[in-house]
Amino acid sequence: MDDTLDTTWVLRWAELAQRVVAENRIELMELDRAIGDGDHGDNLDRGFTAVTAKLADAAPDTPAAVLKLIATTLMSTVGGAAGPLYGTAFLRAATAAGEGPLDAGGVAGLLAAAAEGVVARGKAATGDKTMVDALAPAAAAARRVAEVGDSARSALEAAADAAEAGAQATEPMVAKKGRASYLGERSAGHVDPGARSTALILRAAADAAAGESRP
Ligand code: ADP
Ligand code: MG
Questions:
Q1: Per-residue pLDDT band at 45 (split at 50, 70, 90)
Q2: Nearest-ligand number for the alpha carbon of 191
Q3: Measured in angstroms, how far is the CA atom of residue 33 from the centroid of ligand 2?
Q4: What is the 2 CA–ligand 1 centroid distance (Å)?
Q5: What distance in Å separates the CA atoms of residue 181 and residue 183, rounded to the nearest whole number?
Q6: What pLDDT is recorded for position 2?
Q7: Ligand nearest to C-alpha 86
Q8: Nearest to 41 by CA among 204, 199, 197
Q9: Beta bridge partner(s), residue 5
Q10: Nearest C-alpha to atom 11 of ligand 1 is from which residue?
Q11: Which of 155, 142, 169 is nearest to 210 (CA)?
C-alpha cells in the first residue's frame, strides 16, 4: 500500500478540522473565557467554516495550493491573535509541502515549518502557555517517527498524541504571551485554548490520514 499523503488528505483534513472545531466550539470558548476574552471557539469555527466553503469553490489540486487557501482564509476570517498565527502556520506548511506527496519526513517538515512560523510571528517560547506548547512537541514527535522510517500516518498520530499531551501540560503554566499573560499567576490552572485547538486540529490531520470519519 502507498502510505504517502496527497491532496485528498489535505482536503479531508480541512473537512475534519472544520467538524472538530465546530463540535468543540463551546469547550474552546470556555477555555478562552477562563484566561482570555472567550472568543477563541467562535473565531476558529468561523474560520474553518469559511475554509470549507472556499475549498469547495476553488478546488485547489496540490497540497501546497490547499494549505495556502486554508492559510489565507484563516488570516482573513479568524481575527484575534490566533488568526494571523494559524494563517502563518498553514502558509509555512504550504511552502514545506509543495506538490507532495508526503511521506513521514514530509509530514515532519510540514509541522516543523508551521511551528517555526508561529514562533517567528508570535515570539513565544515553549512553556509560555500558547499553541507553541502543542505544536512544537508535535513537530518533534513526527520527526522521531520519520527518523525510524515509519509511515506518514504514524507520524501524524504521534504528532496528535504529543499535541494533546502538550496542551494538557499548559494547565499549570503561567502565561507569558497573549491576552492570558495579563492575568499573570491567575492564568495558571487552565488549559490554553490555542494549545487545545492545535491538538484538535492535529488529531483531525491524523484521522484524515487514517481515512476515518468521526461519528
Ligand atoms: P485573542 O487572544 O486575540 O482573543 P484567540 O482567543 O483567538 O485570540 O486566541 C488565543 C490563543 O492564541 C491563545 O490561547 C494562545 O494559544 C495563542 N496565542 C496568543 N498569543 C500568542 C503568541 N504570541 N504566540 C503563540 N500563540 C499565541
Ligand atoms: Mg480570545
A1: very high
A2: 1
A3: 8
A4: 38
A5: 5
A6: 61
A7: 1
A8: 197
A9: 102
A10: 194
A11: 155
Q: Of 174, 164, 179, 158, which is closest to residue 134 (Cα–Cα)?
A: 164
Long-range pairs, 102-106, Cβ under 8 A, ≥24:
102/4, 102/5, 102/6, 102/9, 102/63, 102/152, 103/3, 103/4, 103/146, 103/151, 103/152, 104/142, 104/145, 104/146, 104/149, 104/150, 104/151, 104/152, 104/154, 104/155, 105/146, 106/4, 106/5, 106/152
pTM: 0.97
Minimal CA–CA distance to 93: which of 121, 75, 66, 53? 66
Q: What confidence tens digit (pLDDT) does each residue in 116-169 have? A: 999 999 999 999 999 999 999 999 999 999 999 999 999 999 999 999 999 999
The alpha carbon of 32 and the centre of ligand 1 are apart by a number of angstroms equal to 9
Q: Report the atom number in ligand 1 closest to the C-alpha of 195.
A: 16
Domains contained in the chain, CATH given: 7-210 (1.25.40.340)
- Conformation bin of residue 38: beta by default, left when phi > 0, alpha when psi is -120 to 50: left
Residue 102 pairs with which residues in a beta bridge?
A: 5
Ligand 1 contacts (CB < 6 A) are: 32, 36-37, 39-40, 43, 80-82, 85, 118, 122-124, 130-132, 177-179, 192-195
Q: Which helix (H) or strand (E) holds 180?
A: none
